[in-house]
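Supplementary Methods S3. Complex input for the adenosine monophosphate-bound model.
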Amino acid sequence: MKRVFVILIAALTVLSGCKAAPKRFSASYTDVFDTVTDFTAYCSSQEEFDRLSKAAHEELLRLHRIFDIYNTYDGLNNAKSLNDGVSGEYPKELCEIIGLSKQWYSESDGALNIALGSVLSLWHDCREAKVLPDADELKSRSAHCDIDGITVDGRNIRLSDSMMSIDLGAVAKGYAAQKTAELLESLGAENFALSVGGNVVTRGKKPSGNWEIGIQSPDGGILMTLSVSGESIVTSGDYQRFYEVDGVIYHHIIDPKNLWPASLWRSVTVIFEDSSTADALSTALFCLPYEDGAKLLEKYGAEAVWVSKDGEITCSEGVAKYEK
Ligand code: AMP
Ligand code: MG
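Predicted complex, serialized as structure tokens:
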């Protein structure tokens, strides 16, 4: 009898520990950050995945509205309200991203500047109209891009110059991907990849091993495949948003030093655990010469892959350990 009891206990233990083998589920959202977001996770059931996916989507929508510079939303002070001069309390995420961006501004010697909004909005309008901006207009707008003119005091934010505006395009997707990954983990998600328009965050692994993330080649196809577990991979590239005038391509990342599209690289990909930092670094490195970019990477212990104008690939030392 005693023996039967022991066997029964052992069988129950095995059964209770036997959760369904995780299966791959995925979902896409097209209504956040003007791009396509893909969420893939290994879960034990469709219900579990749907619960996580709903939470991720809602979080991304919430952050999208906060960082939106084109639309306002009832009952919310967001980036557009700030640019419109609205005073009052702002969401803590807007205060935080501005604080981080001020730090990245000084670390990158001004290469990443979220106060460049007045210059970037001129480039935006010119891109829509497929014309080039007037050089004098660019210069006069550049007088309203001083990041020290943004003050954050508790939850109050003020722009000291009424002609000034913020643009969070270089940092918002990475920040949102990071916050959403943190939320997913707090809800019990362990093995997932979240790509907010190519800003990829990975956590855990697939049952077969690490996540495999392809870096896009600026000319199409895959440049390199990285094998990661826990890292974020973020690329800034001249092929992501651009227009053409008289056979010349003008892309969307503006060098604050001369106010024209940065001309050193075709793309820069950053590999780093924190996705907000990876997003900020990829834009900053895109505007910086190799030596300055490499120094900035070293400060964070991040890795990068640069693709030069003539297609030459340069990798920081640690990239090799991720290469497949
Ligand atoms: P990313 O794709 O992350 O490199 O960000 C590019 C976006 O950041 C652009 O579409 C602009 O909205 C904004 N941007 C462009 N140049 C800069 C810059 N030098 N500093 C900060 N934001 C920028
Ligand atoms: Mg960026």
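The pocket of adenosine monophosphate (ligand 1) is lined by residues 112-114, 116, 120, 167, 169-170, 236, 240-241, 252-254, 256, 279, 282-283, 286-287 (CB under 6 Å). The CA atoms of residues 114 and 167 lie 5 Å apart.
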